[in-house]
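User: Second chain of the day. Same drill as before.
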Amino acid sequence: MHSIRFLLFPAALALAAPAAAQTGLSASVGADYAQGKYGTPVTSKQWTIPFIAKYEAEKWSARVTVPFTWIENPSVSRDGTPLPCAGSATAPRTASGLGDIMLAGSVNLIEDRESRVLIDLTGKVKLGTADEAECLGTGENDYYLQGDFSKSYGAASAFGSLGWRKMGDPPGVNFKDPFYFSVGSSYRFSRVNSLGVAYDYRQKLVDNGDPVSEATVFLSHRFSDIFRIQGYFVKGFSDSSPDWAIGAIATRAF
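Assistant: Same format as last time:
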């Protein structure tokens, strides 16, 4: 959700993409920078570099995301999860390393070419591969079930997601299992360029926490049938979202 952005945002972009669905293997690499105080006295800054491999068949797809991260003054993870090791220290602190690997699989339930409606069902597992002792993650696995919808109207598209997340609880922490949703739209203003906006919301994970609430503006440019790049800017509206974030992701099909 927050949208890492890399865990959910590429899926939304794919739903809104104007080109016909492609099958086969694709690889992506991105860069994401986010900063915010997240309700603490100090600013947390985080770089994330994800590597994504995806295979698409006619009616299903599978994806693995391997992120590497660097964070200064960790408070929450990139998807808005409070980090139990963060505490209330105000002294500068940095950590870096492997983030949480994400595995995802989607099944196409409806694809009506006449009405231009697409509905997918997605299951995801966030593996607790990030080092919790370094405050890079919770150290626990999380599980997601998510539905995605898109509808095209000529050059415009509307899309949305609704999902539920089963949280893994670190020692001494009892996270809530939140629902989340995304809504947005995009417009194809040329054969290769699209511009869009999206809003993301996720219920709070702890009683004294905040929900995720943020908006994104994104731009997609398709250089060819096999290569595209997408950039985005995020504005957060809660202590579980960054004050702002910016990033880009490049994708090549094979």
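The helical segments are 9-16.

User: Great, on to the next one.
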